[in-house]
Fold:
Amino acid sequence: MIIKEIVKAKEILQQNGLIAIPTETVYGLAGNAYSEEAVKKIFALKNRPLHNPLIVHLKSVSSIYEVATEIPENALMLANKFWPGPLTLILKKQNHISDIITAGKNTVAVRVPNHPFALILLHQLEFPLVAPSANPFGSISPTSAEHVLHYFGQQIDLILDGGECQKGVESTIIGFENNNPILYRHGSISIEEIEKITGKLSIITNNDSSPNSPGMLSRHYAPKTDTYLTDDVSALLKSCTGKKIGLLLFKNTINNNTSKIIHQEILSTSGDYTEAAKNLYAAMHRLDQHKLDLIIAEKLPDEFLGKTINDKLERATKKE
Ligand code: TXA
Ligand code: MG
Structure:
């Protein structure tokens, strides 16, 4: 059954169509990176601003040279350590990479995804795939085929269903100045893990008017429901009267002796960050479906993937 679907996926991509693919992080909206028609369709379907560049997905570490050049030593060390896996590297682009993909920058974002369907497909194609997360711009990323269907319905020719995404948050994005690594986006590899390979990372500061990486745009990954982030959920709950509330909690439920709590989501009862990251977006999608007045999210400890989750929650709760 999946073999048939991969054949179909290949055909659609060869004809410049778009499909949704599973990756270990989130589902991607994929098209031929060497087809201007496909690349333009991705921006249009996602309603994505043209200044927000796309990630090129490769089949292997050695394909890096097809799209990038002047690759720093630290980039190769990270690629060898984490690929296939949830790491995106920003590298100097080869001339033939389209300016639409890179939003006019002289760098290109690349990664090798770690999902068997994505890898089988990439190995069968003569071109890499550009694949942003398969959600309309600014909304919560999809971690299941159902999420993609909910967003795009029949607008995509095929959704390859690879089950729930194992990691559940996007790839960590690292760029370089000379050989010095810079964090462009928090993701499913923690800063601590990256620093074990490269030494100290610098963190790019957020600047909405000219974001170096729009993953650092302040409002992003947002539920439709008004959402607040706090260290002290009970205190905030007390101050909300006459509202239907949903809770997004790290490990413990809140004693529900009030009718205002309609729904609670627990990210990991054992307090495991990896499990919490995996559940984050699915929990946000579910909460958004409860017709709540507001969602209160609990801040996690600021370490390892707790930092990544806090970063996503901060962007989800940022008021415009
Ligand atoms: O986990 C992931 O990375 C997923 C899966 C599908 O692979 N993809 C994903 O793509 O999150 P997207 O388009 O939602 O996010 C790509 C991020 C954006 O924040 C974009 O600004 C950044 O990558 N980016 C792409 N090219 C860049 C470049 N040349 N310089 C700086 N940032 C870049
Ligand atoms: Mg995205």
